[in-house]
Specification:
Distance between the termini: 47 Å
Radius of gyration: 20 Å
Number of domains: 2
Structural class: alpha/beta
CATH architecture of the largest domain: Alpha-Beta Complex
CATH class of the largest domain: Alpha Beta
Shape: globular
CATH topology of the largest domain: Spore Coat Polysaccharide Biosynthesis Protein SpsA, Chain A
Order of helices and strands: EHEHEHEEHEEEHEHEHHHH
């Protein structure tokens, strides 16, 4: 990793892929990126200290395609790996793909074709691929739509048209001038995507799904309600405080996101009190202070309001049952 930062190339898309012990998925992922219909692609692979055969597979691909750069690092997590990729990316545009996912062959052509003047981020929807389950589309709004800065923040807060994932988006690289992923945290996409949208002028959604999000047992993406999402609550709280300052008209939307993330995390740690007793106590204390506001919040669904009301009445409920 002593390579110097490279001169920025106009029109080039730098795709950053962190890799950690996913050898069985790498060929599918890399091939989907290398066979994009948009020709100006560089693939930056960061091996995050893999202990299986992933590192060797990465090196093999570097040998057979000059568009690929590979960096081997000690295991410090996805955020650190992505930050390394950002350091060495030469593209005018930045994209991310998780190593156990893959993308449609025209994803980056579709995104860059919509990167017009005044547009800083272009998004697509995703296809959620569920093994032995029903796959479905998510964040597909059905038509091309441009969002102002404030509208995009609202869509993100409500997880409506815009998800927090960086992988379904193409960014102008200048947005990353002073933004990096928080090392040592999970759910790192949320604060980064919020900050990038906040810096943008306009965000455009192409309407359709181009990213294939593959759910698998023991993967991070399959543990949406796991206790590791504690960071998700903290990030939502920090965003709430920032929104109150920067977008006061969106305060109720940010409040809803904070409350919902708290409910999700309480569900995730339910039944594991011997490990997460302190965390559960803190989260319930936070929720007690927010119950009434949650019941009055128009951006919280009725099903979640029923949970809040049940908690207010019973004081202690089985979160796993929600």
């Amino acid at each position: 990793m002593r390579q110097k930062e490279r001169v920025i190339e106009k029109g080039l898309v730098s795709v950053i892929v962190p890799v950690y012990n996913v050898e069985q998925y790498l060929e599918r992922c890399f091939e989907s990126i290398l066979h994009q219909t948009y020709p100006r692609i560089e693939l930056i692979i960061v091996d995050d200290g893999s202990t299986d055969g992933s590192g060797k597979i990465c090196d093999y691909y570097r040998q057979i395609d000059t568009r690929i750069s590979v960096f081997h690092a000690k295991h410090e997590g996805t955020s650190k790996a992505r930050n390394i990729g950002l350091q060495f990316a030469a593209g005018e545009f930045i994209g991310f793909v998780d190593a156990d996912d893959y993308i449609a062959d025209d994803m980056y052509e579709s995104l860059i074709d919509n990167m017009h003047n005044g547009i800083d981020i272009v998004c697509c929807g995703r296809r959620c691929v569920v093994p032995e389950g029903k796959s479905h589309n998510a964040y597909c709004i059905g038509a091309v739509r441009k969002f102002s800065n404030q509208e995009a923040v609202e869509e993100l807060l409500l997880l409506r048209g815009i998800s927090c994932s960086v992988c379904t988006k193409l960014f102008r690289r200048e947005l990353f001038h002073d933004i990096r992923f928080p090392v040592g945290k999970t759910c790192e996409d949320l604060p980064v995507t919020y900050k990038l949208i906040k810096k943008s002028t306009n965000v455009l959604h192409i309407g359709s799904a181009k990213y294939y999000n593959c759910y698998r047992e023991n993967s991070r993406s399959s543990h949406a309600a796991d206790a590791r999402w504690m960071d998700y609550v903290v990030f939502a709280r920090d965003i709430l405080l920032d929104v109150i300052e920067e977008y006061p008209q969106l305060a109720r939307q940010a409040e809803a996101r904070y409350i919902l993330n708290t409910l999700i995390t309480l569900k995730g740690i339910s039944g594991k009190e011997e490990i997460y007793a302190k965390a559960k106590f803190r989260l319930e204390l936070m929720l007690q202070r927010m119950v009434l506001r949650g019941l009055l919040n128009p951006f919280i669904q009725e099903s979640h309001k029923k949970v809040l009301l049940k908690y207010k009445i019973l004081k202690n409920i089985d979160w796993a049952s929600i």
